[in-house]
Design a protein that fits this description.
The protein is an all-alpha fold. It has helices at about 10-15, 20-35, 40-45, 50, 55-70, 70-95, 100-120, 125-140, 150-165, 170-185, 185-200, 200-210, 220-230, 230-240, 245-250. The model has no long low-confidence stretch (mean pLDDT about 85).
Length: about 260
């Protein structure tokens, strides 16, 4: 192709985002944390989130993939498109989405990229964590976000500060979890909650009243084994809504 990729071909970020199960954990965690965000009313404003939370999830995934697995130029186009969509919503509503709320979403993706990979694969090295941070940092810079910490180490206290200041359990939180349940059904919803318990930070666990121990914890080694013999496809087919089979299959990137 001859075009410079936005994320290096051999980057750990491509490994993390190239496997559907890791991506699903990233979004299980994000779905929990996002429901607590003080600015979640912005997504209620368009009505899209409560109407189809799972569909919204996949469109977000596709945006992220459109950045991670693209050339620098294509990635910039995707980021600019995201900016444009948000600006249009701001104009319609009459005031701006708070800057901290944009950073929150970026920080969420950094945290869950690391937590999900470490849950299903192995611990990341400091260099790899720095690489994860750098990819999202460059995304944030292109989005013209202010006050982004320069590196992973500096980001850790900033992330904690965001968790402490920007989350609350409110009526939107309760409603959003109701929508998750409605769209997933009781059993899958239970699995979602147990999955979330595996990856969310302490502050999110406290606010949502989650147990410290997830019932799925003992099954993680079994699942890793299932992946080795390609049984994970069967597991995913059982656990995920049939309507999204195609989207789930598309999450796996052949590298």
């Amino acid at each position: 192709m001859g075009m410079e990729p936005f994320v290096k071909e051999d980057s750990i970020v491509r490994k993390i985002w190239g496997k559907s199960d890791t991506v699903l954990f990233i979004f299980a965690g994000s779905a929990a944390e996002f429901a607590l965000n003080k600015a979640v009313d912005w997504l209620y404003f368009t009505g899209k989130l409560p109407a189809d939370p799972i569909g919204r999830l996949f469109s977000t995934v596709n945006y992220a993939k459109g950045i991670i697995f693209a050339s620098r130029e294509q990635a910039f186009q995707t980021i600019d498109k995201i900016n444009w969509i948000h600006k249009a919503i701001e104009k319609e509503r009459g005031y701006e989405i708070p800057a901290w709320s944009y950073r929150d979403v970026l920080y969420m993706l950094i945290h869950y990229s690391i937590a999900s990979f470490e849950l299903l694969e192995r611990k990341l090295t400091d260099e790899e964590k720095e690489e994860v941070y750098n990819v999202f940092y460059r995304t944030g810079v292109r989005m013209e976000l202010q006050e982004l910490p320069p590196n992973y180490k500096a980001w850790l206290p900033a992330r904690q500060q965001h968790l402490d200041n920007d989350l609350q359990k409110g009526k939107y939180t309760v409603d959003l979890f109701k929508q998750y349940k409605k769209h997933l059904g009781a059993v899958r919803y239970r699995v979602l909650l147990e999955s979330q318990m595996l990856v969310v930070p302490e502050k999110v666990r406290e606010l949502l009243g989650f147990r410290k121990f997830s019932l799925l914890r003992p099954t993680v080694p079994l699942y890793k084994l299932a992946r080795k013999v390609n049984l994970d496809t069967v597991v995913k087919a059982i656990l995920l809504p049939p309507a999204y089979k195609k989207e789930i299959k598309a999450l796996d990137v052949v590298t």
